[in-house]
Amino acid sequence: MDPDPLLSRATAYTTLAAGTEAVAELEIKRSRFLAVLRRAGTEAEARALVEELRRSFHDARHHCSAFVLGPDRDVQRSSDDGEPAGTAGLPMLEALVLRRTGTAPGGADVTDLSDVSAVVVRWFGGTLLGAGGLVRAYSDAVSQALDGARLVRRRRQRLYRLPASHADAGRIENELRATGLTVLGTSYGAAGAELGLALPDDDAALAAAHSRVAALTGGAGVLHPVGVDWVDSPAAPPA
Fold it and tell me: Where is the UPF0029 domain (predicted)?
C-alpha cells in the first residue's frame, strides 16, 4: 500500500520537478546503458515507467529498476531483471537513496531524495563486465542522470485563501511574495478577488504570516484555512 504523504514525519523532501525526465547513457565494453528517471508518487506510477521502457526498448536484454516513495522514503523497491543478484537494482536504489541534496545546519549531508522511479535499460555488448563492473555501470548511470536532473523541494504546507478587493489584490500579492510567502495565484470574480497561499506547516511561521497579512491589509484581511498539501519550490543546489 502506498503511504499517505500527509501523515509523514518529514515536513520536506527533494524530488524531480513535475513533468520532467532525467536521462543518461553510458557505453562500457560495447554494452549500452540507458538510464531514465521520472517522478512517481505511487508504486503504480513507478512501475508504469518500467513497462513503458520495456515496450519502447523490447530489443534490450535487461530493464532494471529501482524506486523510492514517500516523504519518509518508507517504500523502496528494486529489480535486477535477470542480471546477477545485487548487481543492478540495489546499486541503482543506493544511488537514489544516498544522493546528497543539501547540507544540514550542523554540516551533515542531507539525503532526502524521494518519489523517484529509475530504470536502466541494458543492451548486452558481448563482453561480460563482472559483478563489480555491473554495479559501477548501473550506479553510475543513475548518478549521471541525477547530475542533469531538475530537482525541487516539496514541502508540507497549510493552504489558505485570502479575500481582497480588486484594487488591492495585486499590491497585496506582490508584497506577500516580497516577504517570501508562497502565493499560489489570484482569482478574480464579480464580488472581489481571492489569493491562494501556501504557508509553512509550523505554528511560529503561521503566526508571522497572519501578522504580515494584518499589516498589509490594515487588519481587514482574514486568512481562511482550506487544508494541507505538499507544494513544490525550487531546490537550492547542494553546498
Answer: 165-205
